[in-house]
Amino acid sequence: MHQNMDSHFFIDNKDYAATSLALSNSTSLTLVLPKEGKDLRKLMEQKGFLQNLLEDDGDGAEFGIVNLSLPKFKIHSKLLLADTLKAMGVTSLFDTAAELDGITDEKPLFVSNIQQETSIALDEEGVEASAYTEIGMTGAANIKHPKILHLNLNREFLYVISTRMDGIELPLFIGVCSNPAS
């Protein structure tokens, strides 16, 4: 478990506590711990939840001392996206009549599967995250008395790695660490 106490912006309300840590190259790691008895998935379904987290002046954001206890973790996921895309109406890519001219002279050419894998590892030295998609084809100001937030991520929590582009915070990775003790 990594311990850190430093000054950061944070949100501490009746539903959750959250803070963001600067990484590098305009990227940050946002950590969200639901309050005891609160369901993280229900929080994530609330309209505007993610947007509020990623805004510097999100509702209820304060500047103060964050006493952070953060576990080491590694998470790997693999998603097969063909069925999801078909359910969303993207069907022509998977049909033998797909118009994928310019890729190859081989006919018929169509997408047979789409797979995305992501991996994130966090330890005392930092965060390492990677993702790839495979498409298979067939043929602040100082505060005199800062508040202190104690954020012990010892139960299920949300993490978001984002980057700032043109003044907008864009999420790159979003995930849930379901069992930080393991």
From TrEMBL:
Domain Serpin: 1-180
Pfam family name, one: Serpin
InterPro entries: Serpin_dom, Serpin_fam, Serpin_sf, Serpin_sf_1, Serpin_sf_2
GO cellular component, one term: extracellular space
Coiled-coil region list: none
Source species, domain of life: Bacteria
Gene3D superfamilies: Alpha-1-antitrypsin, domain 1, Antithrombin, subunit I, domain 2
GO molecular function: serine-type endopeptidase inhibitor activity
Name of the protein: Serpin (Serine protease inhibitor)
